[in-house]
Amino acid sequence: MKKDTIEKILALLFLAAAFEGCRATAGPDAGVSSTLANGSNEFEGRWSPNCERFEGFKVGNNLRANFVINSNQININIHLKISGVEDNLISIYFDSPSDLGRGGINLDWADFSKNIPIAIGEIDGKNSMRLNWSGFYNTKSFLYQWVNQPDFYEKRNVILFHRCAS
User: Quick check: pTM over 0.70?
Assistant: First the structure.
């Protein structure tokens, strides 16, 4: 068997294992969202690195949310996809800007990918998540933008988020 054929088979097996127990469904606005096989969503609720200081994002049962990247400057609509062997990984995807101030109005929103995650979260227990922030991937320049400018960014791209009480 050829080396590239073996690599393709291994990649498909990896993807099948990563998405085992998940199902994709078309949402009411024809977007794609993921839910656990039993229909529940263990990620519902508000997540933030500091529940009193930062809004963060609030996930509904359809795995869609508004994510406050910079207060009064950049608020975006996102959707999440669940993956991982034990459904403990979420990929966060940019959908559209929802509210922009001076800080966000000049970014190339039309050029940002909706298919490449802006962040990957790894759930650690029921109430904490390690969020690996990548930024917005620009499909024209092939570079990530807004990598270290978010309010929640702390001199590294992995940020501990907590499930907030409200």
Answer: yes
